[in-house]
Design a protein that fits this description.
Length: 173
């Protein structure tokens, strides 16, 4: 009985381990703010940045203009930003008006039930960033945002777009 309980607890701990660099990105499908479905694996071959955020998160809102700038500069090279709102059903109605008001044109997905963030970051800290390389491997994860983080992130994305994995790992640290 105790052994079974310990096994269940250990299994639960392992299941809630956050995504780590060099892991294969877990596939998911979410709807965007226009109701269209998007599956992560459909973007394989591109460098993808997942940005988990919420309308009530100040640091998230501070980071987003930098993500827009990076996306605008690099989307032609095969870079995608998936901005994943973790707003629940009560506050999700604020997401689309906010995105339109700010003029962001990257894809914004809705994770109203926190299933995807729960997979990548069980602690659900925001903002939370995951960078996925062209092969679908997680190249970098970061929790929080501080001014200047976007410079290291842009350098990492450039390295991944150029296919320089070793340099990208060094840039991420």
């Amino acid at each position: 009985m105790i052994r079974s309980l310990a096994a269940l607890v250990l299994t639960g701990l392992l299941a809630s381990t956050p995504a780590l660099a060099a892991d294969k990105a877990t596939d998911f499908t979410l709807r965007d703010i226009d109701g269209q479905s998007l599956t992560l694996s459909s973007l394989e071959g591109k460098v993808v940045l997942l940005s988990f955020w919420a309308t009530w998160c100040g640091p998230c809102k501070e980071e987003m203009p930098h993500l827009q700038k990076m996306y605008a500069a690099k989307k032609a090279e095969g870079f995608e930003v998936l901005s994943i709102s973790t707003d629940d059903a009560r506050s999700a109605s604020r997401v689309k008006p906010y995105i339109k008001k700010m003029g962001y044109d990257f894809r914004v997905l809705l994770d109203k039930e926190s299933k995807v963030i729960g997979t990548y970051n069980p602690a659900k800290t925001l903002p939370y960033t995951v960078v996925i390389d062209k092969a679908g491997e997680i190249a970098h994860v970061a929790s929080g945002y501080n001014p200047g983080d976007e410079e290291k992130l842009a350098e990492l994305v450039d390295q991944l777009l150029e296919g320089k994995a070793a340099e990208a790992e060094a840039a991420a640290e």
